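Sanity check

After download, print the first record. It should look like this:
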Amino acid sequence: MCNSDFSEFPNIVASCAFNIIKDNYICKPGMVAIDAIADYCDELEMKHIYYTIPIFWEKLQGIEYENIIINWLYMVPISDKELEYIEEFGDEKFEELLEEKNVDVFDIYRKSII
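Expected structure tokens:
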């Protein structure tokens, strides 16, 4: 999710998807795609992509395919300091902080909350 005026976001999403496929890893809530934004636009404070469960569309359910559960994930832009916070305190504490600070997770131009 991102501001519609940021033209590189589709490329960032595609790169994240490509890397998941290429490296054959399971993407799940709480994971971070390091430098996913910085690779396309280094001047922004937001540098990485944080994966989380969609909270705005509660009816958006995952599906089961060949005994694998597939869920939809948000891609939230985060800063270096926010990444450090996640590494130190965990993704649950980070999400509590996002909610506490009422962060617009769609704003790639936002300031870091740390």
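If your output differs, re-run the checksum step. Summary of this record's structure: The beta strands are 32-33, 46-52, 63-65, 68-70, 74-79.
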